Amino acid sequence: MNLFLVNLLLALAWVALTGSFQPVDLLFGFLLGYGVLWLAFRSTRSKRYFSRFPKVVEFVLFFVKELLLANLRMAVTILSPKMQLRPGVVAVPLDLKTRAGIVFLANMITLTPGTLSLDISVDRKMLYVHTVWLEDAEKFRSAIKQEYERRVKEIVEA
Q1: How far apart are CA 61 and CA 55, in angstroms?
Q2: Fewer CB within 10 Å, N side or C side of the chain?
Q3: Which pTM does this prediction carry?
Q4: Is 144 in contact with 45 (CB distance < 8 Å)?
Q5: pLDDT at 7
Q6: pLDDT at residue 1 tops 60
């Protein structure tokens, strides 16, 4: 059985037993269920869920931080008297192998203000990204690979 589904059911059971259907109670129930499942299944072959879940949490926190910073940078750019735009398209080589990983990466880049995934090469080895703040193509490319692609690969292809 899928441990994530069991974890969700344990969280729902927790909020049903406490009678408080607040998001913080659901989160606490989820974390409590995660701990119970970890104690029950840590020595079995279900280690994949327990190693992947912290990486998903880390990715969500990273993406929220990047989203906030990009929104602030876009607001400053728009509200400044002289917009300092340096648009450009950068080809980012991909190490991701699965379609799900590539689509997930492309969507995360597109959701971040100031960047847009334009296309994926036919052989799925290159992702073309448009940015409005291109100062150094190599720095931008390495930031995408080290920040986004590495985390996506840990989650999707682990």
Answers
A1: 10
A2: N
A3: 0.77
A4: no
A5: 81
A6: no
Structure tokens at 3: 């441990």
Overall residue count recorded for the chain in this entry: 158
Q: 38-64 in b/e burial notation, b at 16+ Cβ within 10 A?
A: beeeeeeebeebeeebeeeeebeeebe
CB atoms near residue 101 (< 10 Å) = 19
Contacts (Cβ under 8 Å, ≥6 apart) of 155 = 52, 55, 56, 59, 104
Which contacts (CB < 8 Å, 24+ apart) does range 71-79 have?
Answer: 71/113, 73/113, 73/114, 73/133, 74/113, 74/114, 77/114, 77/132, 77/133
Chain-centroid distance of CA 143 in Å reads: 14
pLDDT at residue number 39: 82
Rounded to 10°, the helix 3-18/23-41 angle is 130
| Strand boundaries in 5-142, DSSP class E | 88-93, 115-120, 126-131
Spatial contact of 108 and 65, defined as CB atoms under 8 Å apart: no
